[in-house]
Design brief:
Layout lengths: L9 E4 L4 E4 L3 E2 L13 H14 L3 E3 L8 H9 L9 E6 L1 E4 L2 E4 L3 H15 L4 E6 L8 H13 L3 E7 L3 H10 L4 E5 L11 H8 L2 E5 L6 H4 L2 H4 L15 H21 L3 H10 L5 E3 L6 H9 L7 H10 L33
Parallel strand pairs: 3-4, 4-5, 5-8, 8-9, 9-10, 10-11, 11-12
Antiparallel strand pairs: 1-2, 6-7
Length: 347
């Protein structure tokens, strides 16, 4: 197994001045979506351990729980810890009376920001993302309100998540976008066609969520057997029985290469993401100390161009069975927001 490096490198995320640890920590699973919430005290210890190890870029959202993950981080950041981290959270997905709603109207943007500041117990948010794009509100209107929040000092940098290339361009024209968060892993590579080149053209940093395929490249198909009924992955097409058998072959090949290289399959898969460029910051999530340490070890796994190409061939287009989200969640995908018209005033 590759040993964890002594220190985690730092990187510039985007071209607006934000500096973060070269690997972040996704905090969602501590509180939501991947089974029952984990013991609060244990998760606070894990966050503190991560920061001490040099992983200072922490990722959350108001929808995780909802709200409970931000509250957890708020407790973890007390006592002078806040000054040591780069804090990212998100808005845009609302659950009202059990109904999911995507919102980007100015009043909602501002109320969401105020709520996150309160739960996190901070004066400002380092990186504030629009989690999903509201297709009923021109992106210029949403970004216009975020621009005001930057001017007021409540947020430092603006990000987008799961946005289309055209939306990214339109948003960036209103106010510089610092980072775009997207799913990027060995088996989720559709962003490479349009989104990644757009970000690079505009000098926007790339934050890769689920870089371990939602745990698949850690445990392989046996992961499916351990999922609780409260786990989102139970409903993801790639984890369904009809697809797991085919996807298991991908894991077996990755695992075989990892054995040859003397590392774990998760370290190999994470090292592949790191190898994509110095503008890419993966944010693997975990709730276990041993997995966190293992993920850090990915930073010391070196890949040759031939190894990168071989890895990519294992999960090439057509090799992966099943979509990355259930069909109902496909409505989250941003194809385009409506054009700005006289009926919308961002000023």
């Amino acid at each position: 197994m590759a040993a964890a490096p002594v220190s985690v490198p730092r990187m510039k995320l985007g071209s607006q001045g934000l500096e973060v640890s070269a690997q972040g920590l996704g905090c969602m699973g501590m509180s939501a979506w991947y089974g029952p919430a984990k013991p609060e005290a244990d998760m606070i210890k894990l966050v503190h351990h991560a920061i001490a190890a040099g992983v200072t870029f922490l990722d959350t959202s108001d929808v995780y729980g909802p709200h409970t993950n931000e509250t957890l981080l708020g407790k973890a950041l007390q006592g002078g810890v806040r000054e040591k981290v780069e804090l990212a959270t998100k808005f845009g997905v609302s659950f009202t009376h059990g109904k999911r709603e995507i919102r980007g109207d100015p009043a909602y943007v501002r109320a969401s920001c105020e709520g996150s500041l309160r739960r996190l117990g901070v004066d400002f948010i380092d990186l504030y993302y629009q989690h999903r794009i509201d297709k009923t509100v021109p992106i210029e209107v949403t970004i216009g309100e975020l621009k005001k929040l930057v001017a007021e000092g409540k947020i430092k940098y603006i990000g987008l998540s799961e946005a289309s290339a055209s939306t990214i361009r339109r948003a960036h024209a209103v106010h510089p976008i610092t980072a775009v968060q997207l799913e990027w892993s060995l088996w989720s590579r559709d962003a490479e066609e349009d989104l990644i080149p757009t970000c690079r053209e505009l000098g926007i940093g790339i934050v890769a969520y689920s870089p371990l395929g939602r745990g698949f490249f850690s445990s392989g198909p046996k992961l499916v057997d351990s999922l609780s009924d409260q786990d989102l992955r139970k409903h993801i097409p790639r984890f369904q029985p009809e697809n797991v058998e085919k996807n298991a072959q991908i894991f077996e090949r990755v695992n075989a290469m990892a054995t040859r290289k003397g590392c774990t399959p998760s370290q190999l898969a994470l090292a592949w993401v790191h190898r994509q460029g110095n503008d890419v910051c993966p944010i693997p999530g975990t709730t276990k100390f041993e997995n966190f340490i293992q993920n850090l070890g990915a930073l010391s796994v070196k890949l040759t161009p031939d190894e990168v190409a071989e890895l990519e061939s294992y999960a090439a287009a057509g090799e992966v069975a099943g979509d990355r989200y259930p069909q109902i969640a496909n409505t989250w995908k941003d194809s385009e927001t409506p054009p700005l018209s006289s009926s919308w005033k961002s000023g």
